Amino acid sequence: MTLLTQFVEGLDSGRVKIVDLTQPLGPETPVIGLPPQFGASPGVTMEVISKFDDKGPGWYWNVIHMGEHTGTHFDAPIHWITGKDLPDNRCDTLPVRRFVGPACVIDVSREVAANEDFLLMPAHVAAWEKEHGKIPTGAWVLLRTDWSKRTDAASFLNVKADGPHSPGFHQTTSELLAKDRDVTGVGVETVGTDAGQAGTFTPPFPNHTIMHGAGKLGLASLRNLDQLPATGAVVIAAPLKIVNGSGSPLRVLAIVES
Questions:
Q1: In terms of Cα–Cα distance, which of 101, 102, 103, 121 is closest to 111?
Q2: Alpha carbon 155 to its chain's center
Q3: Pairing of β 217-220 and β 73-75
Q4: Reported pTM
Q5: Helix or strand (DSSP H, E) at 63
Q6: Given the DSSP bridges, would you call strands 73-75 and 163-164 parallel, antiparallel or unpaired?
Q7: Residues with active-site annotation
Q8: Residue 1 has pLDDT above 80, yes or no
């Protein structure tokens, strides 16, 4: 019996399950906001081309319009200025092997419930590794915050007078994961891979700056991380093969042993 046959048998028997880590994508999907001097990402709009009518009597399809970084989405290295000159840094040129890797889920949901601006520090990573083992090369490090349980756009984006507030990574943690652990990338439940207040940090948006400068990848607006074990799951996160794409909405799947 081949490995792939065993995998399919595991799916059929229920010993292996697929967990969808993706947010629904539609006109109600929350979109990140930026100061007015910067270009804005539009929300999702859909226009019917035909729906079993005179424009297409036997078929239904739509035109969709959105930014690349909308909903559950993928960040390629070229998304950030620090990664713009790296080789194979776009959605259409990244090696597909990089889209699949083991998941390391770091649960900080309790900390975030007490502090919406929580930042993951190297000490938190060290404590996690003491219990679960060293984060392996090529892993997807997923930060479970339960932020995705904020189901209305206002609380999900959480914008206040001084800007958005949401958890993320401290600069030193991003450096640890990108350089010392050589991860594939990080994934978060928030609208972007940096903390809400990261525009005020030095450097601004340190996770984007460090991760993409090191050629690493990002996943944002994930869901259902509470259904994954700390280790043992495999994540498949394949963006659309957009020519020169800086990112893409995508369907993120996790393979988990029941």
A1: 121
A2: 19
A3: antiparallel
A4: 0.96
A5: strand 56-65
A6: unpaired
A7: 79
A8: no
Of 124, 253, 145, nearest to 191 by C-alpha is 145
d(CA 22, CA 1): 32
- Read off the pLDDT of each residue in 143-157 and give the average, rounded to a whole number: 97
| Rounded-to-integer distance, Cα 58 and Cα 42, Å | 31
Residues in contact with 165: Cβ distance below 8 Å, sequence separation at least 6, in sequence order:
116, 117, 158, 159, 196, 197
Are the CB atoms for 37 and 43 separated by under 8 Å? no
Query: For residues 236 and 220, what is the distance between their CA atoms, to the nearest angstrom?
Result: 14
Residue 34 has a pLDDT of 86
| Per-residue CA distances from 134 to 137, 182, 220 (Å) | 9, 12, 23
Token couple for 250: 């995508």
The answer to whether residues 154 and 112 touch, using CB atoms and an 8 Å cutoff, is no
CA dist 183 and 61 (Å) reads 39
| Residue 195, pLDDT above cutoff 90 | yes
